[in-house]
Amino acid sequence: MMAQMAVAMPLMLAGEQGMFHFPSADEVRTQPISRAGNEANWPFSVDDGMLACVWSGGQKVVMFLENRPSDLGEDDTFEPRRVIVTTDPVQLTIGNMAYRDLFRPAASVEERIRLVAPFAAMGQRLCDQPAGARVGHGEL
Q1: In what order do the strands lie in the sheet with 59-66?
Q2: Which structural domain range is residue 86 located in?
Q3: 140 touches 124 (CB < 8 A)
Q4: Is residue 95 part of a domain?
Q5: pLDDT (tens digit, 9 = 90+) per residue, 67-86?
Q6: Distance between terminal CA atoms of the chain?
Q7: How many domains does the chain have?
Q8: Buried b / exposed e across 87-103, counting CB within 10 Å, b at 16+?
Q9: Is 92 a domain residue?
């Protein structure tokens, strides 16, 4: 018991979560983002969505989630696609295999990293906000 407390104490004091922590909805930080009409470097295949900071594997992870399509009925179920927004090439490619079509086509991994990098930086600033923060358009 003492060994468990010794391991958990630095995490608690730092306000961090452990490896097996499952985040609740009030811990997630979000910000709506959308493509400006003349924005040539928008990395996603949809024009708007939500940037989110969530806990995964004991660390904060930046994700992009698509918005609910406007033509979808209220009674229709909707499971948004989501991708990890990072400059780590392994997470960017392997970690996003399930919903890679949420990214616009890129000629190479390097190009995708270049397109995603500003949004990864914005997401890290979002992760610095208090748990449960809902940041408005353009506030970061």
Answers
A1: 29-34, 48-56, 59-66, 82-84
A2: 15-69+78-127
A3: no
A4: yes
A5: 998 888 888 898 999 999 99
A6: 42
A7: 1
A8: eeeeebeebbeebbebb
A9: yes
